Amino acid sequence: PVQLLQPKPVPGRSGMSQRKPREPQLARSLIKEVFSYFVKMPVTREAFKIVEKCSEKYFKQLSSDLEAYTSHAGRKTVEMADVEVGFRRQGLVTDKMPLNVLIERHLPLEYRKLLIPIAVSGNKVIP
């Protein structure tokens, strides 16, 4: 009689992964790049770790707020209006300080180009 070959079990492996799923994090290099752009002086490792924790908590809170604003509006996609409402609640955007002015004042040119539409020849608007 012909017997079917069975694969050998790999020792130490079970069907389930042993790792716990990790929360996504902002890249340390991104936080360091943005922070060093604004601080313009050397920062100790301990101070940078605190900045890292604070930025992580800030973005967690911001994302939960944006989720709440979006679901309250009956949508499933976060829009620029939701971001503006969040910044208004924080006091960053006012009638005298619109979101575009904040973007132009505080962000480098490559980020400004991504966030603010730019008119170019041929009546095209980018992005």
What keywords describe this structure?
single chain, 127 residues, mainly alpha, Histone, subunit A, two-stranded antiparallel sheet, 5% strand, CENP-T
Radius of gyration: 24 Å
- Taken as a percent bin, the fraction of beta residues is under 5%
Report, as a whole number of angstroms, the end-to-end distance. Answer: 69 Å
Widest sheet: strand order?
1-2
Spans of 5+ residues with little confidence (pLDDT < 50)?
none
The count of β-strands is: 2
CATH fold call of the domain at 52-115: Histone, subunit A
- What is the count of DSSP helices, taking H or I runs of 4+ residues? 5
Say which CATH homologous superfamily of the domain at 52-115 is assigned. Answer: Histone, subunit A
Give the ordered list of helices and strands. HHHHHEE
- Overall average residue pLDDT: 81
How much helix is in the residues?
40-55%
Overall morphology: extended
Based on secondary structure, the structural category is: mainly alpha
Region (Disordered): 1-24
GO biological process, one term: mitotic cell cycle
Pfam families: CENP-T_C
Family: Belongs to the CENP-T/CNN1 family.
